[in-house]
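Lecture notes, part 5. Sequence design as translation. It can be helpful to think of inverse folding as translation between two languages: the language of shapes and the language of residues. The source text, in structure tokens, appears below.
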């Protein structure tokens, strides 16, 4: 799952995959803006077939948080 999330971030944000860890913050460390975050949430919903509420999205700030959320959804 980590690798797939990294691939999505690399494609969307054009970042070096070697800089991404489970503790990487999407905004602070990777420089994502609000539009990038919305696009990432939509891509996660499409890729994993989940619905992410606005409230949940505000908690998905790190790669690890995204991975834990998806695992909790059974993905």
């Amino acid at each position: 799952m980590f690798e797939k999330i990294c691939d999505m971030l690399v494609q969307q944000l054009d970042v070096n995959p070697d800089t991404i860890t489970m503790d990487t913050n999407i905004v602070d460390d990777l420089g994502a803006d609000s539009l990038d975050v919305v696009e990432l949430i939509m891509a996660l919903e499409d890729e994993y077939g989940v619905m992410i509420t606005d409230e949940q999205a505000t908690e998905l700030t790190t790669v690890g948080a995204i991975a834990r959320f998806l695992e909790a959804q059974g993905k």
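The translated text above is only one of many valid answers, since several sequences can fold into similar shapes. The CA atoms of residues 42 and 67 lie 15 Å apart.
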